[in-house]
Amino acid sequence: MSGAAARHDQGGLALSENALEPGTAAQWIGRLVLLGSRIARWSRTHSDQQVVVTVSVPVRDFAAVLIGCGWLMAAPKPVVEPVAEVARSLALETPVRVVTKTKVITDRFRGLDAERGRLRLTTNWLIDRLDAMTVLPCFDAPRSQQLAQPGVINQMAGLAADWAARLASPADDLALIGTLKWLREDISGCLGRGEELEPIANILWPDDPKAATRSTRLFAASRLDDALPLPVDVRAVVLDGATAIKYLRAIETPVVIAVIDRSVADESAAESIVDYRNSRGEPISLEYGIQWQPMHGMEAMAFTVPL
Amino acid sequence: MTRVELLNARYERSAALAVSGVELVAVGEPHGAAFDDALRKLFLLVRDDMSGLWDDLLGAAKALRWRHATQPQPLQFNPAVQQMSATVAAEASMLRPAVGSEVREALTAVAATAAALAEHDPFLGAALFEAIEESGFLTSVVIGANGAAVAGLTNWLTPFGVAVYSTSQLVREQRLFERAYAVGPPRFMPASLVTAPLTEALSYYVPAWFSDRSIPRSPLADLAEGTPPIKRRDFVIGDTSSPTPTDSEETLPETTLLPAAVWIPPDAPSREPGRDEVAARRVLLSGGYAILLDDGERIRSVDPTQPGGERVTNVDVKSVRPGIYLLLRDGETERLALYDAAIRLMGTQASAVAASQARWKAALQSRFDQYGQAWVLRELSKLGVRRLDRVRAWIEPTLVRPRSHRDFALLLEWLGVPVNATFPLANALNKKRSQASVNIAEQLEDAIGAADLAALERDGHLRFAVQSAGFRGVIATRVLSISPYVEIVLRHDARVLSTDRSATWLE
C-alpha cells in the first residue's frame, strides 16, 4: 500500500449520516474508498480495455458513494493556466468558471481591462482576487456558490494544495448510477477521521442544478434506458444495485464498478456479471493487479473486456 | 443505533457467520417421509405421460409436500393441509379407474399418506418450538419460506412474542436478532439469509426426508476473491427410519418435486419465424394471466423495493424471471403505443422517418429470408458486430435501432442502406421514443405511488387506474413461470395480456 492510502485504511475512516451526528469508524469504510482510488490509479495505465470490478456487500448503503470518493481522491491535478493568461485568450461571451477567495461562479466572459487588472463578468473582478478560471463547454445560466474549504478528507488526499484549480476544473469523469433517492441520501452524509468530518458532497461535487461546480454525474437506474449512451467524457461508472447492473453490457466506459447488495433476494445481477465475465472477460487479480483486497463481509472479482 | 452503526453490525455479522457457519437441523418426520416416498414412486411411473392428465393431482400433491416442508405449525394453525390432502385424495380417486394396477397402487399410497399428514401434528414444529424456547422467544426470529408460510407461522408463534418474517421483510425492517430459525430447505430460501445476515447465528429446520440440504452461496462465490465457503453443521433428531426404497427407485432431484409449472414441449418442429411472426416464450403471471414474450424491446416492470418515483423501469427480456413484476396494459401493447407516440412527435418528419426505418428493416428481413439466420449472424460477426444475440430483434418494427452506434453503423453499411440518411433519422426517432417513454413512466409512477404495494407483494398482482389517453387499465403482476420452450407466434399476439389458469398451484 502507498503511504496515504495505507493510513486511511488502517487509521479508520468514519462516516456519519449527516453533519449533526458524530462519525462512526469501521474498517469497511476505508476499504471501499481505497477500492475507488486503486482502480483510478490502475486505469490510468490500462486505458485500452474496459475493467469491470464487482464488489458484493451485505447492504448497499454508502458503498457506491465511498468508491466514488476514492476515485475522486485519486484524481490527477488539473492543468489550469494563470487567470490573466486565460482571460487574454477568450472571445467575448465565452462561458467560464471562476474561483474567487470566497465563491465559485459560472458566468459569461464580457471583457478584460488589462491596464486596470479587471475582468468583466456580470460584475467586475480584480484579476488578483481570482484564484482560477476555466472555460466551460456549455452554459445555461450564471451561478454562484460559496467556496467550501477543503476538509479532512480532501486534505488527507492531498487535494487541498490545488483547491482553487480543482474547483475550477473538477474531474468530471465519474457517474453513479442507481436509485437516485438513496444515492442523494448517502451523499448528504459526512466522511472523515476521528472527530473531523467533511461533507461527502464536497468530495463528490454531485449534479446539483444550483451548483457552480460539478464532478460526479448521477443517473437514475430506472430511467437509464432513456439516458444511454452515456456522455463520452464519463470514464468510470459505479453501478449501484441490480437495476443498474442489468445495463452492464450496454456500458462502454473504461471503468465499471458494480456494487451488489447481497440483502436483495434477486440474484440475477450477480449472475449477469458472471455471464459477461465468462463470455467476454479476461479475469484479472484484484490483489496483484489492482492491489486491493476485499475484507471479511465483502466479495470481489475483476475482469477486463476489450473495448 | 445510528444508520452507520447498523451498517457496521451488518458487515460484522456477515463476516462472523462466514466463519462460524450455519446449523442445519433435520427432524425425523415419518408421515412426511411416507408421503414423499409414495409421491416419488408415482412420479417415476407417470412422468413420461405428457397428456396433462396428471397435472392436477401432481400439482396438488407437490403443493402439499412443499407446505409440509415449510409450514410445520400444529394442524390447528394450518387448515390448508386438510383441504390439500382432500384435493389429493379426490384427484387420485378420479384417476384410479383409468390406470393399470401398478399405478393404481401408487395412487392409493399417495392418497393414504396424504391423509396421514392431515391427522398428525408435524414433529418439525415441535422441535422448532423447543429450540426457540431454549434460546429465548424475544431474541429469536423465525423466517418463513414465503408469504403463506409467514402468515401460518405468525398465527402460531406471535402469541409467544416470537417475531416471524420473510427474508425480504426482515431486510426491509433491518431488525437485528441473535438467532434466526429458517423453516425450510436452505437452497430454496433466499441466499441473503446466509450472505447478508441480520442475525449472529442461523439454523435451518427441515424435515429429514428432504434430500437437498445444500446451503445457498452467492453467485460470485466461485469466482470471487476473499470468500471462504460457508460451513454447515448437521444435526439429526427424531425418528428418521425412512421407508425402504424399492430396487427400481432412482434418485429424483428435489427440483422435480417442487411446485412448478408443467411445460409441455410444442408439437411443431422448430423453425425460423416468418415475416409477421416472432419467436416467443409463454410467461405465466399471477392473477391467472399470461403473455407470450418475444426477445424484442425491453419490457416495463415495477420494483416494489424501490422508493416512490423510481419504481417503474424497463427490463431486458433476458432479465425477466420468476419473482419480478411486469407492468402490462389492457389492449394495445406498450411498445406499439410508444412507437406511435414517437412517430407523432416527429411532426413533419414522421413519414420520412417511417419510410427510412421500414427500408433498413426490410433489407435485414430479406437477408434473413434469403440466406437464413446462421449466415446472417456469421457475416455480421465477421464485420465485428457485437450484439449478435439481438440481430433478430432488430427487425421488429417498433424497435427503433440497435443500442450501440457501432453495431448500427456496421449493420447499415452491410445492408447497403445509406448510413448518413438513416442514422440521424433513427436517432431522432429514438429521442422521441425516450421522451414518450419517460412521460408514460411518470404517469405510471404517479398511479403506483398511490397504490398499496404491500397488497401487490401479498397477492402477486394489482390493478391500477391511469388517467391518461391511450390507457384502458394497467396491471402489475408477478412472473410465476417462464416456458423453456420457444413458440412461433404472430407478432401482434406477442406481449398481449391474456388469461391462463394453469398457474393455480403456483400461487
Would you write up a description of this structure?
The complex is a heterodimer of chains A (307) and B (507). Chain A is α+β, with helices and mostly antiparallel strands. Chain A contains 11 helices and 18 strands. Chain A has helices at 3-10, 27-44, 63-73, 83-88, 152-156, 163-168, 180-187, 201-204, 242-245, 268-280, 286-290, and strands spanning 13-16, 24-25, 49-57, 95-100, 103-108, 111-113, 118-120, 124-126, 130-135, 143-146, 174-178, 190-193, 196-199, 216-220, 236-240, 255-261, 282-284, 299-306. In chain A, the strands form 4 sheets. Chain A has a 7-stranded mixed β-sheet with strand order 14-11-15-16-3-18-17, sandwiched between helices. In chain A, strand 1 and strand 2 (24-25) form a beta hairpin. In chain A, helix 1 packs antiparallel against helix 2 (27-44) and helix 2 (27-44) crosses helix 3. The two termini of chain A are 29 Å apart. Chain B has helices at 3-20, 30-46, 55-70, 79-95, 101-117, 123-135, 147-157, 167-173, 192-195, 334-345, 350-371, 373-383, 405-415, 419-449, 453-459, and strands at residues 22-27, 140-144, 163-166, 177-183, 199-207, 232-237, 277-285, 289-294, 299-302, 312-315, 325-329, 461-464, 474-482, 487-490, 498-499. Chain B has 15 helices and 15 strands. The model of chain B is unreliable at 244-248 (pLDDT under 50). In chain B, strands 7, 8, 9, 10, 11, 12, 13, 14 and 15 form a 9-stranded antiparallel β-sheet that branches. Chain B is an alpha/beta fold and 507 residues long. Classes of the chains: A alpha+beta (307), B alpha/beta (507).
